[in-house]
């Protein structure tokens, strides 16, 4: 199992403080392409979802431009997220620690993270975000193509398109809720955003939130990089 | 003078006419919640299409092309009279020809139905449209597409219970029959009704058209069409294009005219509960996370976490192996 508990690029830099490399440059770039795409999709999608948000079409240069560009951004997001998925899915498989972690979720919120089980690179909350995003993006790309009338009008009947557009809207609302949770968690757990900007976290952050991951890294001398 | 034309057969007036159908006559406007109530209510108008009088000459199609200045592509003859093959962004009305064997008489009946926008009282296209003012409904019953506001999303296609709107591949805007709103605005009936040589298409106030239909239905019944009737489907609140059908008990034989059209429950859900609950849920989640972020204690790394990490990892780089 040991080889699937770490990802390429994970490395330790001993010192005071300890620095831990968490995401490679390519992963971060990949993440931010996905993130920007998701935000643009949400803005353009919301403008066509509720009349009170139609003004958002101005960001994209008007209603026609918004309608044209939205599906293309979806294609970018799909492939960008696919790369993230291929990197992350193994470490996001559900295990027994996750069940225990969820049972202790109250401790996390009340500030007693020390009572929670030690977790590897991803905790159950992060896994929830990962799988929600994976499932919702799959639903959104499939239903999105079904209502991309410019190229795929003949693919499905109008009756099927009605269901597709409803499911697309519901899935979009849910993914925005998941996105809010993701961003919120990243801000609330201080030090997390850094892992996606500079690529590294402090040793204390790793000890506090992903102790099993840190221990696995520390156990293997090969994982040690140079001084921070 | 009546506020809307009451016939399509009169000759155009020679005096100048002012536009009598404007923004103040709108009773609904797509993606617009705060439309001011109209200052006046125009008399409801309707086009009545008597399929039993139609000879399939397509003068109505020609008149429609002529008036709206469209250019339907020239297509191949595939063995039926229908041409073009379907409604298109350039063809707002279409004669649909069906060959139907009446099981009671074993007679072949050639059913010809002029297809096009029905101008529903409860228009599914307008309900589905996300672009403010791209679809409007006037108090005289006309449902019109305002092309400069159209974003080409095709939601109207999904909202329509009659499969009428078509999106242009050229300018990416939705097109359909306007009930010649630009003619009606200046006291003229629709071009198709004007051109119809048998007066199978007539135009006037909706009340007059219902009365006219009654006479036609009585006549048809006296000629053996016991099920003759008016097609003014209540599922969409009635329409402003109505049919006299000799077999009104089975509209579907007329090339798939819906028996009981109404806005799909899926569309209603999408444009109803999903829109309101969805926006509320997203707003609530965003507001709650901002509030929590501002007032709750963040989850910070404690100094002892760093100390523990240093102890675990071991001293400095000199310990590297």
Description of the structure:
The complex is a heterodimer of chains A (228) and B (321). In chain A, 63% of the residues lie in helices and 4% in strands. Chain A is built from 10 helices and 3 strands; from the N terminus they run E-E-H-H-H-H-H-H-H-H-E-H-H. Chain A has a 3-stranded antiparallel beta sheet with strand order 1-2-3. Chain A starts with 10 loop residues before the first strand and ends in a 9-residue tail after the last helix. Chain B is an alpha+beta fold. Chain B has 2 domains: 23-262, Alpha-Beta Plaits (2-Layer Sandwich), CATH 3.30.70; 270-319, no CATH class. Chain B is built from 8 helices and 11 strands. Chain B has a 4-stranded mixed beta sheet. The radius of gyration of chain B is 28 Å and the shape is elongated. The model of chain B is unreliable at 316-321 (pLDDT under 50). The interface between A and B is large, with 63 and 58 residues.
């Amino acid at each position: 199992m040991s080889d699937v508990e770490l990802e390429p690029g994970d490395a330790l830099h001993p010192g005071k403080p300890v620095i831990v490399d968490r995401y490679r440059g390519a992963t971060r770039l990949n993440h931010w392409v996905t993130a920007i795409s998701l935000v643009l999709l949400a803005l353009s999608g919301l403008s066509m979802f509720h009349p009170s948000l139609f003004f958002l079409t101005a960001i994209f240069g008007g209603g026609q431009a918004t309608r044209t560009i939205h599906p293309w951004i979806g294609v970018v997001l799909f492939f960008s997220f696919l790369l993230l998925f291929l990197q992350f899915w193994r470490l996001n498989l559900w295990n027994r620690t996750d069940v225990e972690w969820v049972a202790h979720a109250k401790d996390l919120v009340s500030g007693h993270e020390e009572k929670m089980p030690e977790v590897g690179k991803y905790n159950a909350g992060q896994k929830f975000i990962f799988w929600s995003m994976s499932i919702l993006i799959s639903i959104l790309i499939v239903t999105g193509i079904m209502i991309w009338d410019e190229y795929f009008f003949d693919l499905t009947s109008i009756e099927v398109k009605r269901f597709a557009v409803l499911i697309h809207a519901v899935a979009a609302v849910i993914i925005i809720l998941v996105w809010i949770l993701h961003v919120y968690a990243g801000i609330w757990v201080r030090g997390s955003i850094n892992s996606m900007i500079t690529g590294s976290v402090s040793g204390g952050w790793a000890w506090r939130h992903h102790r099993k991951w840190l221990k696995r890294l520390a156990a293997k001398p090969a994982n040690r990089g140079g001084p921070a | 003078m009546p506020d809307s034309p009451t016939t399509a057969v009169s000759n155009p007036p020679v005096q100048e006419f002012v536009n009598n159908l404007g923004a103040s006559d709108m009773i609904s406007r797509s993606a617009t919640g705060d439309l001011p109530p109209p200052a006046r209510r125009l008399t409801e108008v309707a086009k009545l299409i008597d399929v039993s009088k139609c000879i399939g000459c397509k003068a109505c199609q020609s008149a429609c092309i002529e008036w709206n200045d469209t250019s339907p592509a020239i297509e191949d003859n595939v063995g039926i009279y229908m041409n073009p093959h379907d409604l298109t962004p350039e063809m707002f009305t279409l004669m649909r020809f069906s060959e139907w064997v009446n099981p009671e008489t074993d007679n072949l009946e050639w059913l010809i139905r002029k297809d096009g926008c029905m101008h529903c009282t409860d228009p599914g296209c307008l309900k589905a449209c996300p672009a403010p003012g791209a679809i409007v409904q006037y108090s005289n019953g006309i449902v019109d597409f305002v092309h400069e506001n159209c974003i080409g999303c095709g939601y109207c296609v999904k909202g329509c219970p009659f499969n009428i709107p078509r999106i242009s591949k050229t300018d990416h805007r939705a097109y359909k029959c306007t009930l010649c709103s630009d003619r009606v605005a200046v006291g003229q009936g629709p071009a198709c009704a004007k051109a119809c040589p048998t007066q199978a298409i007539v135009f006037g106030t909706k009340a007059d058209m219902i009365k006219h239909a009654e006479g036609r239905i009585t006549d048809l019944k006296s000629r053996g069409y016991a099920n003759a009737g008016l097609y003014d489907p209540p599922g969409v609140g009635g329409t402003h294009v109505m049919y006299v059908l000799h077999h009104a008990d089975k509209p579907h034989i007329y090339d798939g005219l819906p028996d009981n059209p109404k806005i799909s429950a899926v569309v209603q859900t999408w444009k109803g509960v999903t829109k309101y609950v969805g926006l509320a849920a997203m707003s609530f989640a965003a507001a709650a996370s901002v509030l929590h972020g501002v007032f709750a204690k963040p989850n910070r790394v404690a100094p002892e976490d760093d100390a523990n990490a240093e102890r675990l990892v071991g001293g400095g780089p000199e310990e590297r192996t």
